[in-house]
Structure prediction request, 674 residues.
Amino acid sequence: MTAVAEHSSADVVDADPALQVEGLTVDIRTISGTVRAVNEVTFEARRGETLALLGESGCGKSMTATALVGLLEPVAEVTAGSAKLTGRDGVADLLSVDRKARRRLAGTELAIVFQDALTALNPLYTVGTQLAEPFQIHHGMKSKDAKAKAVELMARVGIPQPETRLNSYPHQFSGGMRQRLLIAMAVALNPRVLIADEPTTALDVTVQAQIMELLRSLRSEYDMAVVLITHDLALVAEEADRVAVMYAGNIVETGLVSEVFANPRHPYTKGLLDSVPVNAVRGEELKSIGGAPPDLHSIPQGCAYQARCPLAQDVCRTTRPTLNPVGSRHQSACHFPQEVVNV
Amino acid sequence: MSDQLLRVRDLRKTFRVPGSKTGLTALDGITLDVGRGETLGLVGESGCGKSTLARTLMMLERPDSGSVTFDGIDPFSLRGKDLLKFRRRVQMVFQDPYASLNSRMSAGDLISEPWRTHKTLYANRSGRETRVRELLDLVGLGAKAADKYPQEFSGGQRQRIGIARALALNPDVVICDEPVSALDLSVQAQVLNLLNDLQKELGIAYVFISHDLSVVRHVADRVAVMYLGRIIESGPTEAVFQSPSHPYTAALMSAAPKLDAAHRGERILLTGEVPSPLNPPSGCRFRTRCWKATDICAAERPPLAVDPHSSTHGAECHHPLVGEPALSASA
Prediction:
């Protein structure tokens, strides 16, 4: 039984940026033409803080993550932007490094935890072998020493009897334990930046709480920047310091979670917050956002949210709004940020 | 609740598993009631038996023992025409609207397909077409949608087709198995509103299965919490949410992330995971993760403890949390 650790947002948002993404743009080639999945996305993640990329399916949040770790499918391509990672040996641009340099960075400076741990682990190798691998590749350790490190790691992420479990295969673990293994693998080499792509979506809530607790304590222990990719607003409210809300490939609002959730300045953020059944009374009508996100093939000119927005005016149909300050550390890409309260 | 529609008593189901003598007990004595026009929320983590229960109510599984009575009839005793007639009364909405609709059938065909089996309903073609249009209007898609195919719809719209199909046979009960968990938040609210409106209009009862507590709180009149094949707590929704008696219910509520940080008390963080149903703990099944567990919990299965404030609210626990509000419940 553990109380939620108090974590002061104000301290960490001023820490050194570990990852600075600027103007990241990803295009996907499809049979019916090229679509823009990520459009000039800019954000930064600082050491010791959690930045949440929040959005619904198809908004480009996972595509952003895959672009950063260099795992885009061949049909997808980064067409613009930079992603500067400040590591131990200086600054590297994740979007332009060559394969060799990326391999050096993988695990040591940048790591990712995927949603589905069963497909992320190799079913044919024992978890001990897989956990020991980073130490052998990057630190040139002997198998025996690396295995000892693996045991240490398994104990750290809360896997009982690590010495015997070392020789088990991924399928012999439960969903929560597999996720712990993935996290162990990700933090093995003490990376500066950890990207967690929907790390708990496949898990039950009681296990989700355990995993988030683990991520939180590892973040402070290793002083990592965590980029949490999720569609869950409540998870963002509890776990993140800052948030970037994505819609149809664009960041539409960003700022401190406490600020953005208390005073949303984009109608989409407001709509999402209103859609959550918080203490909703039985039978009472829930507020919802009408319509559905636009097809990436036919994103309208102007604001991508216009078709669902109650505030939409002529200017929204002609001019795409850019992120502008609407408060301290709070930006919104809306032509009418001050009117969002009335939505 | 005055008018009971569905009565389930001591329902048991064990699946044979290779290498296990005892088998996997998915349902270990389930007792519940659903009234006409009422929503029963069924909550629990994966592997707790929610879906087996739903499948048994749909008559897709035959229970080992125990009884299901529907309006006084035991459906498992029916044969032939009577059985066919009965099946009309219980329908289901599935979780994944991408997998549950045949992509080679139009929305109209999907909705009218049940009538191919139940031929007496809407016998002539024009009657069927009118009814399809009515149903599409009812779920907010509009009559024009009848000629479109599933892939032309978004996830939320597909789920509306699934709902229209479930309603095609004018059922008394619709079993909703995680009907909104595959949907995006902004669309989820639309579908929940639709389900609520349909209930008001048509008086259908729902058995609403979900792992999302805030959703259940919004739609259910009563809640039943399942753990390893048993209902460990049940009662009126607000009573259960405001003062959970079973430590597991309290932990489940505490574990769910909250949007409003001010509503969050001290978090109850359970250790461990749900034990394997192949080898459940003795006595109380939750004792291995429970912070209140004592010797008696291992020795004896807890009896139903009824909440002193509400006779319809009870939990199977030796040490129920009496009068401890959910948010301050801690070890």
